[in-house]
Automatic annotation (TrEMBL):
<keyword id="KW-0999">Mitochondrion inner membrane</keyword>
<dbReference type="InterPro" id="IPR045579">
    <property type="entry name" value="AGK_C"/>
</dbReference>
<comment type="similarity">
    <text>Belongs to the AGK family.</text>
</comment>
<feature type="domain" description="DAGKc">
    <location>
        <begin position="52"/>
        <end position="193"/>
    </location>
</feature>
<dbReference type="GO" id="GO:0004143">
    <property type="term" value="F:ATP-dependent diacylglycerol kinase activity"/>
</dbReference>
<dbReference type="GO" id="GO:0005524">
    <property type="term" value="F:ATP binding"/>
</dbReference>
<dbReference type="Pfam" id="PF00781">
    <property type="entry name" value="DAGK_cat"/>
</dbReference>
<keyword id="KW-0472">Membrane</keyword>
<dbReference type="GO" id="GO:0001729">
    <property type="term" value="F:ceramide kinase activity"/>
</dbReference>
<dbReference type="GO" id="GO:0046513">
    <property type="term" value="P:ceramide biosynthetic process"/>
</dbReference>
<protein>
    <recommendedName>
        <fullName>Acylglycerol kinase, mitochondrial</fullName>
        <ecNumber>2.7.1.107</ecNumber>
        <ecNumber>2.7.1.138</ecNumber>
        <ecNumber>2.7.1.94</ecNumber>
    </recommendedName>
</protein>
<keyword id="KW-0547">Nucleotide-binding</keyword>
<dbReference type="GO" id="GO:0046512">
    <property type="term" value="P:sphingosine biosynthetic process"/>
</dbReference>
<keyword id="KW-0443">Lipid metabolism</keyword>
<keyword id="KW-0067">ATP-binding</keyword>
<dbReference type="GO" id="GO:0047620">
    <property type="term" value="F:acylglycerol kinase activity"/>
</dbReference>
<comment type="pathway">
    <text>Glycerolipid metabolism.</text>
</comment>
Length: 414
């Protein structure tokens, strides 16, 4: 029978092998979920005093992320862990783009903020958070990130790399329960009229970004769609130049980190004694003149400009705060453009050889009148316009895997 029906037999064997591999993968995923739930249950079984309220966790879930699969991924892999951990979980699902910014304005006090989605969801939540009138207090709330989107840049910094999606999601959720945090820089990007937008990765403006947006249009070419998008973009006027004027300030010294626990207030008689002593002993200080800011100006013509935080190469012990401004040379051949475009799809803020790198704490980007195109701010599209970009060092604290934090500290010592 096998000899007479070898085509059907071969097809049946392949189908049976694929089905067995698929079932084995599902079984392994269930084992990972069970192990993560057992670890989370250990947190939920801890005894707390009756007078201490449960910690409140507010989850901002974007069900449309990952082509509409984010809701199912969250319910299967992250929600059981959060509920078993003993947290008072409130899940807020967004229905349209920009809704998270409005919901953050109405959010009441919470102990944890958890973002379940991709780069766009992160950008919306931190923008809504830092636009609040009481952002100084709310920015101290630790933030957790569950990577469910198509692009999750922060996950490379916060969690170990994993090829298994279920393991990656469960590791990120467990990291929130373990409580280790790292401070991340934030970019404040402000136009002439618009409200400021905040980003944790950076801003891109140029030909590589414009071509990368069109990759999905060539889906029918399969693995060649990335090269095709960059190849067809070379049919425009070549070389593609983006001209602007850039003013910037250099890096700033990092102040010492404030202790999380404030010392107890001294008794009344001690405070009175200190105030009287300072009043009678210290001379009156005259206000010091503030030195003018040393702005540097640069005329640029580039194929792409990117302004990125140092969150990808996080150094917890550095003594200066700055962002990286990459100005890529405009003299690029069409072949190099297609090759580098594929690399930039994997690492958007890659800086090729021959590019100019500037370290700055603040910059102003002036565009010529009539400039068309768009910015990419944390992989979200915004109209290109003159903007001021300001670094907010160590503005937000994100939960991270303890292993990643240990690696950062060991790398800093070496």
């Amino acid at each position: 029978a096998l000899r007479n029906h070898w085509k059907k037999s071969t097809f049946g064997a392949c189908l049976l092998g694929w089905g067995g591999h698929w079932l084995y993968g599902k079984h392994c995923d269930n084992l990972l979920r069970r192990a993560a739930c057992q670890e989370a249950q250990a947190f939920g079984n801890q005894l707390i005093p009756a007078t201490v309220p449960l910690k409140k966790a507010t989850v901002f879930l974007n069900p449309a992320a990952c082509k509409g699969k984010a809701g199912n991924l969250f319910e299967k892999n992250a929600a059981p862990i959060l509920h078993l951990s003993g947290l008072d979980v409130t899940v807020v699902k967004t229905d349209y783009e920009g809704q998270a910014k409005k919901l953050l304005e109405l959010m009441e006090n919470t102990d944890l903020i958890i973002i379940a989605g991709g780069d766009g969801t992160v950008q919306e939540v931190i923008t809504g958070l830092l636009r609040r009138a009481d952002e100084a207090a709310f920015s101290k709330i630790p933030i957790g990130f569950i990577p469910l989107g198509k692009t999750c840049t922060l996950s490379h910094t916060l969690y170990p790399e994993s090829t298994n999606q279920v393991q990656h999601i469960t590791n990120a959720t467990l990291a929130i329960l373990k409580g280790e945090t790292v401070p991340l820089d934030v970019l404040q990007i402000k136009g002439e009229k618009e409200q400021p937008v905040f980003a944790v990765s950076g801003l891109r403006w140029g030909s590589y970004r414009d071509a990368g947006v069109k990759v999905s249009k060539y889906w029918y070419l399969g693995p060649l769609k990335t090269k095709a998008a960059h190849f067809f973009s070379t049919f425009k006027e070549w070389p593609q130049k983006h001209q602007a004027a850039l003013m910037y300030l250099g890096p700033t010294e990092r102040p010492p980190e404030e202790p999380e626990e404030k010392p107890s207030r001294p008794p009344l008689y001690v405070r009175l004694y200190r105030r009287l002593r300072s009043y009678w002993s210290s001379p009156k200080e005259f206000p010091q003149e503030v030195a003018p800011e040393d702005w540097e100006e640069l005329k640029l013509s580039t194929i792409e400009l990117s302004i990125a935080t140092r969150n990808r190469q996080l150094d917890l012990t550095r003594t200066e705060d700055f962002m990286d401004i990459y100005i890529e040379a405009e003299s690029v051949s069409k072949g190099e453009f297609v090759h580098r475009g594929s690399q930039k799809m994997r690492d958007p803020h890659m800086c090729p050889e021959g590019s100019q790198c500037i370290q700055a704490s603040r910059c102003i980007l002036q565009l010529p009148e009539g400039t068309e195109g768009s910015f990419g701010i944390d992989n979200e599209e915004y109209e290109a316009m003159p903007v001021e970009v300001k670094l907010l060092p160590r503005k937000l604290r994100f939960f991270c895997d303890p292993r990643m934090r240990e690696q950062m500290l060991q790398a800093a010592v070496q």
